[in-house]
Amino acid sequence: MALDQSFVGRAYPPTAPYEVGREKIREFAEAVGDTNPAYTDPEAAKALGHSDVIAPPTFVFAITFKAAGQVVQDPQLGLDYSRVVHGDQKFAYKRPVRAGDRLSVTSTIEAVRSMAGNDILDIRGDVHDESGEHVVTAWTKLVARAAEEA
Amino acid sequence: MAAKISYADVEVGTELPAQSFPVTRDTLVRYAGASGDFNPIHWNEKFATEVGLPNVIAHGMFTMAEAIRVVTDWVGDPAAVVEYGVRFTKPVIVPNDDKGALIEVGAKVAALLDGNRVRVDLTATSDGQKVLGMSRAVVQLA
């Protein structure tokens, strides 16, 4: 069943702050095999002009995707999450995410479409730090594949 | 910001050093833990095939994280990446053997932008298939 178009533009309340830890950044960098010292060595990060270690560019997805859970699990929207695949992902950074950040995400539904039986959902996640400064915006396109004919 | 590449030193067509990134089941389990994405299609072959996939597949976000390393390794400061977007066109299929899969990434400067920024277009393939489409980053150079 096609998703309800009236959800376009709906914004969800900001999430409780996620505190970015140095060790979590290290764990993520190791998981992607990235040895850039800016992720693990505060002195190396400072040499690049950062106040502490910074996170790899895609790190913030874990936070914005969790926040997008408010949308995908919204019972009123009725998305079949078992059929969802990740279509597109984009980030625009105001500054890098760094250790010590306390980040909140406001998720907004930017578009709802149906194409060939697939439901397509565009979610924007605006990420702010504790002082209210905008850090990064993430755009996530989710595609719920059409159910197969029985 | 401390990009080690200068805007004056690049032109449209400048190629970044290409890299290949191996992926095994072990890699995916580590990424699942670090990212919090425990979708069983990324570690459970029985589940993956039941939902119609040929095998366990890599997280799209893992492939996206690997691809941008071609840019961050080149420019030095990862914070120089000010925009980054991809389309997930094909999954990276990761068999349960010693070899796993290989993600091959190339990149080149596609446009010179204002403010010492450039657009870098990336290509990512695995097993001869293009796995990312419309893969682009905007990078702040020195």
What report would you give on this structure?
The complex is a heterodimer of chains A (150) and B (142). Chain A contains three helices and five strands, in the order βαααββββ. With 150 residues, chain A is α+β, with helices and mostly antiparallel strands. Chain A has a single domain (5-21, 55-145), classed as Hotdog Thioesterase (Thiol Ester Dehydrase, Chain A), CATH 3.10.129.10. Chain A is elongated, with a radius of gyration of 17 Å. The mean pLDDT of chain A is 93. Chain B has helices spanning 25-35, 45-50, 60-67, 69-75; strands at residues 15-23, 81-88, 101-113, 117-126, 129-140. Chain B has a domain at 12-22 and 58-140: Thiol Ester Dehydrase, Chain A, CATH 3.10.129.10. In chain B, a hairpin with a 2-residue loop joins strand 4 and strand 5. Chain B is of the alpha+beta class and 142 residues long. Chain B has a five-stranded antiparallel β-sheet. Classes of the chains: A alpha+beta (150), B alpha+beta (142). Chains A and B meet through helix 1, helix 3 and strand 2 of A and helix 1, helix 3, helix 4 and strand 2 of B.
Short synopsis of the structure:
The complex is a heterodimer of chains A (150) and B (142). With 150 residues, chain A is α+β, with helices and mostly antiparallel strands.
